[in-house]
């Protein structure tokens, strides 16, 4: 039946597929990670087996043959119906079926199912027929049934006969047995078929839907940038693709993939994948996808789709597909690693990031190839990359294996086909069918096959990648051009010769040759055109293969062919401009013959032609290629290639066969439109290969026949015009014009040392900072103008080294001008032969005009060799010239105009192409107009006006107007000429029609120009400086009292003072401890700063009015002051004064707008509208900013969250324009203030067109209305918020309707609204100067419009919003009588400028176990500009002064003597310049000090402020090109060696020119109003805060100047507590490298190298030689693991038994990091533990345990 046949087909296919699947799985196990292409071929064979129908199925037990209708037909002609036993019932229906079969048999008597098995069974049937007559009739009938069964099917065995069914049967006329009960089986078969077909349709519909959906999504793709496109071309060439693929970018969570639709094939890249941001990983992923294209894996997707529709239910298919795709990825990985083996680490990182990126993505679309595989495949792929064991020949083995599998599969197909054909063959009854397969016949066939000797061509080894391959005539060697891969993975390109017998590859020429070599007839020499790549110069060389000697013929020739006698070489020679290459040979040359004996070249064919009309671009080219020698060596035939490229871009090409005698005579065309011919043996005729047509050659004396290709008449006329124009151009002298316009076209920079300026754009708030130095460096950086919050990237920073060719790029995200070093070298230097110095000059001049303005007149003046003058016309007093770019520069010449930066542009025209330009020159040789054309269309018009003449007689325009008609874009720019004769922009506007104009200007121009007058002035100034320095030599020396060496961890007990009572504010001892403050970024130990722990006796009373304080001063190794801090006794009490009681009433009355997180809020929806966005929002929201409708975060929000954590050390009252107010100085937990003219979107993106600012602080000044309790102003150091226009929302509840936000960058006037008394929501931005124009609309509360809306009625602000005038706060008085601290701060106009403002946060008082008061002063504001070596502590009580001394205080005068200056009011004191070689001995002194001798304090002056305090103003001099500096100046007032006043101040400034002088710092000497002194000691430290021009600050300044305490010094301390802090500081120092090396799995880390100096210290801690704490030992265990030193293994194993659990855990981590698995179970346990919460973690080490254990576990597993 049909279902039995179908079942047999399915089982036959599955049986063979299962066998192939088993073989493929076995191959996968054996060859995995070595031959992925072979593995892929096996699994591909499994898929092919599933879709190819069987020609002859296997005989499956229990099933008849699938051709059951034919199996009922006898091998002979059917006989008449046989008598039937009456006992056997006959079914009419069966009889009718049998009748049809019988009729079929009569119609097709030749159709019979004949197989070898049937024949064998037929023989046994004939033997049994002899005994039929002797059997009873009933037995004859039974025997006949059995005989027919044997003929129709296989005869059952004896056991099977016993199992035959005994049910009644119907027998047709031919004797075939048909079962009666087929209905049930058929019904089941139909159900199975229905399920199968339904599933197939479902799979098909689902797949088509996926394809359709992704095709729609592809419409959102965008092309890659131009720089990436250049990389794509290079990678495609390296991979071996003949055509550069299309690459698009899509914003979706997809992997990089190859999409093969119905129309095109492309590579799709995800925009948000982090690996795409780095050029290296991006290029590697592109190479992976290109490898898929090269392998044509996308065609396999169609095969998979067809197989999935048919076999969706079969596990074999899903297994085969999974294995197939895994093999595809591995094969592509192998291809990438073959090309870039040195980038295996970056490639592994790219794969991991891609798999992580798509981990939560939806299913990959159908027909998509690639995707970086699944997560389960990741491990095996990483092992493949790590081992890098892939065989380079796998790519070659894949097609061989597929061919082998096809050959192995052919027997099955052929056998099926033979059996099928035998059915139709005539098989007479008297012929035994077994003769068809007789052994004699098979032996004869096999003998004929074996008599043929198979050809065994010699193949190149897999490490040879040929471009052209030519075997030697004697087959002894193979010559090839291409690539040769060495064993170390390096590559060579050139001409090679491979000797199969010796297995040796010999490099004859190392050059990227692209033409075919030619062997001499004796297989001894090779001839080739020695030129890399494609060009028009091909020097013909002849190489002796044995010796390697190269014979340079001195003539041009490519496509060489040796004559039969080996004396002559036919070549294509005398090339034109090329432009078209066939087989690497330019198709515009002629055929010539090189005589190796006479060493002369003679021509056979006429010269080639390569002409082009520069206007219409009509091009005609013809040339001879591929010469062929006649057998007698007297004739040459060749292919004459002719190409016409018409203006409509239609290309017509034809190839003709021409022939001539070797002397050039008898030139004749033999065949039209033909390329391949062959010579006759007698050399008298040529035969065309395709048609077989033969043409006899004719003898002729004609030199050039009429049918030789010539120029078209149209092109001839144009060339005549060009020749006439060239004659006119000869009358024009361009040198005179270029010399007259040199000032603005190509300025001289010889007398300029450096140039710096800022190119400012508005209303876009961006600045482009440009720096250039004569020595050969420049840098371009684009930043946000005011606060630098938005950094648009560094365009590039080119550093010129000794060879002038190294380019260093700082930012790979710069748009649109980022170019890598490889890009520059490939796109600039190689094709156009531009040196690095020339490239630097061109890019510098582009910026020196103040903008990236570029048009042809400028480009011509700077690069005259890039242009040619093609026409010249004289009109009255003006002249017109036509300029065109030369071919080598045509791609580089572009028009740029508008407000554009190096990295970012808005209103601009960029890279506009022009093929010709008309310049208008007046009678004074000035270029006054330029018109740029593209064809006949005008694309740009440039007018140059307002010409001036400089001092040296040069001319330049002061105004340039540019108009682009097609885009309706206009640029108007103004210029000026500086004193240094530099033509530079002053201002300009750029505007598209009906759009806002963009303005630009040049500010902060600094030019350092050398001249004779300037040099003389400098010499005079230096001489005067020497005189002043000599008069100011140090004359005063003072020995500091109380100077004590600083040793972290040591306790210093002060000498007792009997005059001071025991309960007074006088410390008994001090201990200096380094403190690690936690960093919020790394969540580990942060900055290490000094903390002074002062121990006091129990204080019985500590009122605020006691005037007692302590003054701490730190000094460096030269005893120069580093930092000063004053601790008033009143601050101890004030710092513990809680602000909760004061703040609670304020918060209670403002609950609507100062909400708590758990406060109920109605359901609200509103529309947020901005300049570039319009999006709906829903409330309540988890973000407080969104709940307010605008980005606004206040310090009051932090106070509302935890008012109990805030302290109020300062509180005074004042009168503010008749309004009583309270001024509160608060400090508490770190809070943030944030404001922006936008609102964060749900996607996390945001747009703040009008400005954005954020700051973090711990100190706050809050002004509160004394009567109403309304907060009026909150002010931090950099931001101020004014709360105005209060309204009563409900009884006792108030809210402001207006908030003015003041920052250093911008102002905002925010208006709010109150809706139904339930909601306080942002309304609009009311500052008319702000361009943001943000607002809210369409507000719904609980689905309804608000019925009552209260808005501010104050008009919108027009002018600048003012800061609060703090000097208007009059009558300032402390709220608590006698509060000296508040009174001190009230004396300052701005309280936050008080020198002790930051110190109040750093003071923490507590009571010890013995009842003593411990005062910890953490000097967080201590500058990280040096390591303190000494300290002094002075106690002031009223008028008395006491230097605190201890046993360790220095007493020798030589040890504590310093150089001081006299204390003189209103006098300027010159500070002598200290020696460059500062000695640490006591014999040398200096007044002032610096980390860099190029920045120092030149002088200082002292004056009194209104409170009679001494203020020191230093003059800071900088003579270096630093971009930004931070200078900390500390002054100390001394009386008789005692420090009586001190202060510190910081100055931050930019060194834009040299020398730079700053007088901004003001050092207030605290306590100088009560104490007098007679000398001043001043010290300073400077640090570079941003990169200097042409170098890096880290190379100029010692690292020790950037730390408070060096880890090495702390680790060598004698105190265990200090050593523990040193370990934490060491980990903090290496934390970034540790994270990069272990978390990002970059094995090439520098942690181990950095920890080498600390190995001995770590070993001491691990060995237990010191009394270190368990926490210190635990951290030392982990640092030992990070050191990768195996010597620590013994100590770490011993610590596995340590009593402390943290030590045992850390020892296991250390061993794991060293690759040991001694405690692998403990590591697994630690890695599985959840990360502790910040609130519950006991220390930082505990928070790192899980992460460290994961790293150690992975390293141990590896």
From TrEMBL:
CDD domains: M56_BlaR1_MecR1_like. SUPFAM superfamilies: ARM repeat, DPP6 N-terminal domain-like. The chain crosses the membrane at residues 6-28, 40-59, 188-208, 392-414. It comes from the Bacteria. Residues 176-385 form the Peptidase M56 domain. The keyword Endoplasmic reticulum does not apply. Signal peptide: none annotated. InterPro entries: 6-blade_b-propeller_TolB-like, ARM-like, ARM-type_fold, Beta-lactam_resp_regulator, Peptidase_M56, WD40. Residues 116-136 have a biased composition (Polar residues). Keywords: Membrane, Transmembrane, Transmembrane helix. Residues 111-138, 434-458 are annotated as: Disordered. This is Protein TolB. It comes from Gimesia fumaroli.
